[in-house]
Amino acid sequence: MSEVVEQDYEQFKSLFFQLTGINLSLYKEEQMKRRLNSLRLRREIPSFVAYAHQLRENKQLLDEILSRMTINVTEFFRNRSRWNILENKIRNLASEKKQLSVWSAACSTGEEPYSLAILCSKYMSKNTFSIIATDIDQKVLNTASQGTYLEQAIEPLTDDERRHFSKKGLLFEVEDDLKQTVSFMKHDLLLDPSPGQFDIIVCRNVLIYFTEEGKKTIYQKLSNSLKPDGTLFVGSTEQIFSPAAYHLRSTETFFYQKTANER
Q1: Which of 36, 109, 172, 185 is a plausible cystine mate for 165, CB 3.0–4.6 Å?
Q2: What are 85-134's pLDDT values in tens digits?
Q3: 166 has which bridge partners?
């Protein structure tokens, strides 16, 4: 890529940071540049700098770019065998704790936090657990909070899990009791402070978009957000190679526990 184009993109990153507070330097450059460039070309905008100026004036364009920063691919109980391990942890916690707090980070369109709510509801009453579900993209949060899904989305669920949904026309909607256990909020994993202290944090299939520096920032934030002995559940390509640096220890593949003598 020519030096002029490189300078154009560098200036765009600076303008985008001023506009949104999002530091694109902490995202994998080629992957992010390719994704944003395809949006720019589709809109027939001559340069990245011109794109940045249009983003400032056009909320629809800004919403579009925020939606494309990550690919919102998700499903209920994605990689079911891993969720079976998490269910055992939730069962044990339910026998030990009167209240359980859970954070679904980068929750996309809601399948993950509702999966968590289904598991928690098997072992706890709705007033004894709470789930905060966050994402950088307000559009997917709006979709998630509605809690409505096409039939093919719930086909992999067991009959017991499907009872948490009611049919509304062509869609299936999460029952109100379950929906009330999940709170959705906009949150930038890199920029924003932690939304609380949690017994369980699920952060899957999002760290692949970040540089090593960005990952370190997020791992530290996630660790700081865990209660002692709390559990972090990550995606299948997101193993932490030096967990002790974040006061974590590996318990099973893709699961980490906060060491008890740390905050």
Answers
A1: 172
A2: 999 999 999 999 999 999 999 998 999 999 999 999 999 998 999 999 99
A3: 173
**With the C-alpha atoms ordered 41, 46, 49, 55, is the resulting torsion angle positive or negative?**
negative
Structure tokens that stand for 35 in this block? 């994704």
Amino acid identity at 236: S
Q: How far apart are the first and last CA of the chain?
A: 46
Side-chain half-sphere CA neighbours of 152 within 13 A: 1
Placement of tokens 């993209």 in the chain? 137
pTM of the entire predicted model:
0.83
The burial of 69, by beta-carbon neighbours within 10 Å (0-12 exposed, 13-18 middle, 19 or more buried), is given as middle
Structure tokens that stand for 243 in this block: 């967990």
- Single-letter residue type at 67: S
| pLDDT tens, residue by residue, 194-228 | 999 999 999 998 888 889 999 999 999 999 999 99
Identity of the amino acid at 5: V
| In contact, 249 and 234? CB cutoff 8 Å | no
Choose among 196, 74, 65: nearest CA to 136: 65
| Residue 248: other Cβ atoms inside 10 A | 23
Domain 80-258 belongs in CATH node 1.10.260.40 = no
DSSP letters of 47-108?
Answer: -HHHHHHHHHH-HHHHHHHHHHSS-----TTSSHHHHHHHHHHHHHHHHH-S-EEEEEES-T
